[in-house]
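Entry for the shared binder. Reason: the reviewer on the internal report wants the predicted structure included alongside the sequence.
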Amino acid sequence: MAYTSGTLVGRDTELAALAGLIGVGSPTPGGAVLLSGDAGVGKTRLLTELRDRAVAEGWQVHAGHCLDFGDSALPYLPFSEVLSRLATALPQVVEKVAAAQPALARLQPGRRVLGSQDREGAAIDRGDLLQAVHDLLEQAAEHAPLLLVIEDTHWADASTRDLLSFLFSRSFFGPVAVVATYRSDDLHRRHPLRAKVAEWSRLRGVDRLALAPLPDDAVRALVAELAADGTSAAEIAELAERIVPRAEGNAFFVEELTSAASGPERWVPADLADVLLVRLDRLDDTARQVVRTASVSGRRVRHDMLTATSGLDAGALEEGLRAAVESNVLVADRGGYAFRHALLGEAVYDDLLPGERVRLHTLFTAALRDGVARGTAAELARHARLALDLDTALSASVRAGREALEVGGPDEAAYHFQQALELVADPRRRIDSELDVSKLVVQAAEALTASGDPERAAAVIREQLERMPDATDAERSRMLAAQANALYITETDVDPSAVSAQAVTLAPAGESALRARTLATHARILAAVGRYDEAESVGMDALALAERLDLAEHVSDVITTLSGLKKSGPVDGLRSALRDAVAHAEQTGAVAAELRGRFLLGRSYEDWADFDEAERWFRAAIARAESAGLPWAPYGFESRWQLAWVQLVRGDWDAVLTLASTADPHPPPIPAAMLDSLRLMVLQARGEDVAAPARALRRFWEREGAVVIHAAAVQIVAAARAEDADGVLAVYDDAVTVLGRIWQEWFSARVRLAALAVGALADLVPRMSAAERERHLARAERLHEDGRTVLQRYADPSGHWGPEGRAWMRRLEAEVLRMRWLAGTAPAQDELLAAWRAALAAAEEFGHVYETAQVRAVLAGILRAGGDLTGSREQSDLARASARRLGAAPLLERLRALGSTPVRAESRPDSLTARETEILTLVAQGRSNGEIARQLFISAKTVSVHVSNILGKLGAAGRTEAAAIGRRRGLVE
């Protein structure tokens, strides 16, 4: 059993270790290694790589294979195979040894087949044969280091095992290495190789190397390699997440599951099932009955459960278990038993007859329900559902969901509650449940929201509202409040405040926990949508009611909401109120309110670019969310995402990549997309081509505005690097359209997108024709006006346009002036420099390390073009230091280009020759050297010489600056 991947995945360490043990690449080759591992884990694949490496080092490699002939194994079979190979490669050596050691001839393949006429009747001395093989290997190694590989020794006959013992215990004077492999999962307690391995391991010079299962990351990489052509990255990631827990690091299982593209349910590809079930066929009837019963439990089964369900008495059960354990089908595990491979358990379960499954699940259900065997509500729900006992399954599912919430498992809780909702609607149930379905719906929605999937939460409530046309006002109020709570943290066309207002209207009059909860939710949502006065009024009513009813969690929720409303006064007042709210939430155990308070504090400091304090509060929120088992819950995840953004701004890009890692634990789709957008920004700034994954994020644009902002920024830069000016504007337009629809038209981040777009256009001006330059300059002016409109319409109760907003507005103004300068409608040098110095000051105030370096690089070019070489060099050096620390390769390249041409003082206009002026005019039109050469009927090399002279005379770092200087001096139109 072997897998066929063309690339060795996840085994570099083991390959290096194995090569080192036998001396490949060493001046003293030789040694012996016992290589073990489960079937399919990758032993043969590793040996293939070892062979290639050894051959590349000048070794000769010969392999022999043991075969499964049962009790009819042919003695010394793998050595006959090796002798055949040596007879072909080194016939003179084989003849020489055979002449001196006649016993060697007995191993020749031709002497061992039926019908052979050359069969001597006399027995030979076994010691002579063993020594003959040793001598053969010794003399063959005189030609080149020799690696002998004997594979699958778990099938070896006794003679082969004895010969290996001889070779391991007798030293070689020449460079001979021996590697013997075996399947560790086949070595049951009575296997004859088991004692031999223990014996060999004690011999001097014999090393052991156990091949462990592949780590999860390697399995994901292997799935990506094996996936069919055309499979998207998202589809590969989804497939890998399904395969990782099932394959358990076994490369063969990974390949079979990937090729079958098996679904998430319990199903094993037929070919793989056949391989796995061979183990079951080797067991007697009692052991098979035990194993089949165990498969109904899943990967693991407790002993008391088997006692209750197997139908065997204690003696027969123990006998069957012993046989299953000795055959490595089951292993003892924490008071019970587990299948050695999860897929083996699945294959056995899939092989059960439908009636047999129902019967066994019924026995498991009874054992759990009656307390005969220990178990959880989740186990009872599963077995009852598969036993078609739907009433028991419903009550157990609800209980399992509540238990999951108590231990911080929102994902599991959401699953169980949704299972319960399906069972509520199942007409096959025999007993009408007294369960309040509206409360179950809310529990499911809250669990989904806490697990990071509020979209699903809102959809579940919408579906249940349609299913319950006769619901009472109180039931509808309860569900609508939960729906509003899910909607306000998603991008939706539905106004969440209208939904929460309807919930308040339907809530029962008077004093009730439901009314207090509904008012608290409505106040929170009014605050979130900017209706602060209403939020305060509703919040005060909610607070008074919650305090009268002694509802501590609702009190903390409302206090946090009211504390966050203090934006119109001094910022210190807001922060003080939020700290008190967090302390109150901690005292009352209101985790959601505590997370919201910590997040709001972090955002308050972030808005004022106090990143140290922002990081402190965000990290506290992340830690609290993780300790509560809610890493993707509202405000816990948002704190992680905002912290990643803070670290991006501060220039700690490695921290960004750590925070944005989505491998473990695997996040829901929207949080994963949000983190990916930040990760791609770092990778792009370091020089990677991330255009394709950035485009892939477009499917999330309508669902999350944060993804739009950052993914669009990545796409704008990607379009600029591809010299696609129209593509730059298309991305900007698409982003503005989407965000204008899901937010509002003049959203504040529009200034940032406009600044990036105009900067990208400015970089592309030298490659534009005159007509393109005019068209894009006009568009840049309109983007500038867009930014001004955003600033004019910006509304915040604090009246604060923060450091980030100021930095991007200054950048936009400076980029527009640069584009005018490069396009020939040059502003005064003083005006241009003043704008870029203002942009630099704003970027430094904001603290964005990378954007500050970007501004310095542009400013250095402008200073250089104006003849201020000292100032240019100072800005370049500062930008270069930041770029090196960040690993920002494209920025370093820009700075290298800036300093690549010797700078001279500005020359007089008449310093250019007529031909140089003519060429400069064409350069300013964006023509390439080849195009200029064809138009002027000269060679491209001559054009290149003229361009170099022009750059030197004008003191320009490149064609862009030369064109700008030429326009400013009137040398070109």
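Summary line for the report: The CA atoms of residues 661 and 675 lie 7 Å apart.
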